Amino acid sequence: MNIRDRIGAALKQAMRDKAVERLATLRLINAAIKDREIAARGGDRDGTIGDSEILAILGKMVKQRQESARAYEEAGRLDLAESERAEIGVIEEFLPRQLTGKEIEAAIEEAISASNASSIRDMDKVMAALKARYTGQMDFGAVGPMVKERLSAS
Q1: What's the CA angle centered on 57, arms 51 and 63, to 5 degrees?
Q2: Integer Cα distance of 144 and 126 in angstroms
Q3: Which of 92, 121, 145 is a domain's end point?
């Protein structure tokens, strides 16, 4: 079952269970996917997006909510921060397991050797290889500096 089908099934179940907060989050996910499909229409594309693009959307949604939760906590709005965290929990159900620090380091080493990267100029190739294989499993904003450091040391 692909991610889109899993989200649809979860949406129907949330309707049956009358889980209002969960249903709202699932609808936000569907809206974000539909927005991306609409943006993808035109040219020779039919507007359908694959699982990797859906994973990227979900990852972005989690990151946005983490930033919002931090801002709410700093402002003393713990109720809103908790609401954001609840949404993160629903979204993360559809993301693959996050890699540990050691797994990320191993993935970086593998991507560097697979792309024959030897200097900082090859960073784009390494990041593209990581994104192709590990979308949704690591935070590329945090991985970028690690790759840069590793390539600078070479």
Answers
A1: 135
A2: 9
A3: 92
Q: Put residue 151 in one of left, alpha, beta given phi > 0 → left and psi -120 to 50 → alpha.
A: alpha
Amino acid residing at 108: I
Domain co-membership, 59 together with 119: no
Q: Which domain holds residue 8?
A: 3-92
CATH number of the CATH domain containing 117: 1.10.10
Which pTM value belongs to this model? 0.74
* Residues in contact with 85: Cβ distance below 8 Å, sequence separation at least 6, in sequence order: 65, 69
What is the token pair recorded at 135?
A: 């979308």
Q: What pLDDT digit, counting tens, does each position of 3-54 carry?
A: 889 999 999 999 999 999 999 999 999 999 999 988 877 665 666 788 888 8
The pLDDT tens digits for 99-151 are: 888 989 898 889 888 888 888 888 888 888 888 888 778 888 888 888 888 88
Question: Is 74 exposed, middle or buried, given 0-12, 13-18 or 19+ CB atoms closer than 10 A?
Answer: exposed
Using CB atoms within 10 Å of the CB of residue 143, give its burial: 0 to 12 exposed, 13 to 18 middle, 19+ buried: buried
> What span, in angstroms and rounded, lies between the C-alpha atoms of 77 and 15?
29
